[in-house]
Design brief:
binds zinc ion; Histone deacetylase domain-containing protein; His_deacetylse_dom_sf; Arginase, Chain A; alpha/beta; two-stranded antiparallel sheet; about 15% strand; 10 helices
Length: about 375
């Protein structure tokens, strides 16, 4: 049963940016090594290649379903879907982070049949324009919160961005949406300190690379240890030169759930933010640390993501915040996680709203016995 929409009360002006064209980006086929340009299932000659939009882990379904849930439950009516200007980033904006040759290469391939922008960054015809639109929307969302037209914003951008390095697409990412948005804030808008919090289950290597020697951007990444890219994101990567101490990696072991992530926020992320005193916070919001995700081995529920969002937002309500969507590959779970985060962003009054039974994620109950937070449970039981 749908909740009564008139019951929904929010306390903040939250921008929500989605675009049909984001869903049209094609990231390849599920068969390993299958090049989208040639549809040549090199490594998968014995396995049936998938096709269509469901082809690869990174497909439009999770994003479309997240937007659908927000719409159908009525929350969309309480969000601002028109203030943030939807436009493609100009080449000069892409060049804030990426090399001209790389940008031209992606544009050229996109005009033909697409291909691989580097390492697991397959794309089809027309993806250059879609990726540029994703960047442009993140940049404009930053403009809107800096202008104080909105309190905060969520950009459901696709393709994702945090793996994209200066001259190389990686891990489904073509252009680094959040890094370009951060650099825009500094170079164009004169912001002095930008904090980027990245809780995608994979390490945000591209964002780290962009600001590794910079003290005006603090990059804080919570990720599963040594997942993707391999050997990236160790605790010892703390920045270099002027940037020493401004790169904070928190590689967690597999199996961490809400408790571990909550503790990580309290023990490392929030103290780091306090020390840095940012003027703008950007969040690389991946949902692939979710317990149903096919590409991660963490156990976070939608409530865990909700808690993290709450922590970052309530850190200082005067600081503008933009969430940029990253990974998350469970079409069943991502919508709930996204809804929870949007609830926190817009300050939904929850006392009289019940979007789904028991506040639990779909499919979560059978998994409760796998639960992860053993130490906390032991401490509770023994009063420690
Ligand atoms: Zn990811």
């Amino acid at each position: 049963m749908l909740p009564s929409r008139s019951n929904l009360k929010v306390s903040r002006r939250t921008g929500f940016v989605a675009d049909e064209r984001f869903y049209w980006h094609h990231a390849g086929f599920i068969t390993a090594g299958c090049d989208i340009a040639t549809f040549n299932p090199t490594d998968g000659e014995f396995i049936q290649p998938n096709s269509g939009s469901q082809g690869y882990f990174e497909n439009e379904s999770t994003k479309r379903r997240m937007a659908s849930l927000i719409d159908v439950c009525g929350l969309m009516e309480k969000l601002d879907t028109s203030t943030v200007k939807k436009r493609a980033a100009m080449k000069e904006e892409l060049m804030l982070i990426h090399g001209r040759d790389y940008i031209d290469k992606v544009e050229d391939m996109s005009r033909r049949n697409g291909g691989d922008a580097g390492d697991f960054a397959f794309f089809g015809p027309g993806s250059y324009e879609i990726a540029a639109l994703a960047v442009g929307c993140c940049v404009e969302a930053v403009n809107s919160v800096l202008d104080k037209v909105l309190d905060n914003a969520y950009v459901l951008c696709r393709p994702p961005g945090h793996h994209a390095e200066r001259d190389k697409g990686m891990g489904f990412c073509l252009f680094n949406n959040i890094a370009i948005a951060a650099e825009h804030a500094i170079k164009v808008r004169g912001v002095k300190r930008v904090a980027i919090v990245d809780w995608d289950v994979h390490h945000g290597n591209g964002t780290q690379q962009a600001f590794f020697e910079r003290s005006d951007v603090m990059f804080i990444s919570i990720h599963q240890d040594n997942l993707y890219p391999p050997s990236s994101g160790s605790v010892n990567e703390i920045g270099a030169g002027e940037g020493e101490g401004f790169n904070v990696n928190i590689p967690l072991p597999p199996g961490c759930g809400d408790g571990a992530y909550k503790r990580t926020m309290e023990a490392v992320v929030l103290p780091s933010l306090r020390k840095f005193d940012p003027e703008l916070i950007l969040v690389s919001c991946g949902f692939d640390a979710g317990f149903q995700d096919p590409l991660g081995c963490q156990m976070v529920t939608s409530l865990g993501f909700s808690q993290m969002a709450k922590d970052v937002i309530s850190f200082n309500l005067d600081i503008p915040i933009v969430f940029c969507h990253e990974g998350g590959y469970s079409p069943e779970h991502v919508p709930y996680c996204g809804l929870r985060v949007l609830e926190e962003l817009c300050g939904l009054e929850k006392s009289n709203v019940k979007f789904y039974d028991d506040g639990l994620d779909y499919g979560y109950q059978p998994c409760q016995t796998w639960q992860e937070d053993v130490l906390q449970r032991v401490r509770e039981l023994h009063g420690l």
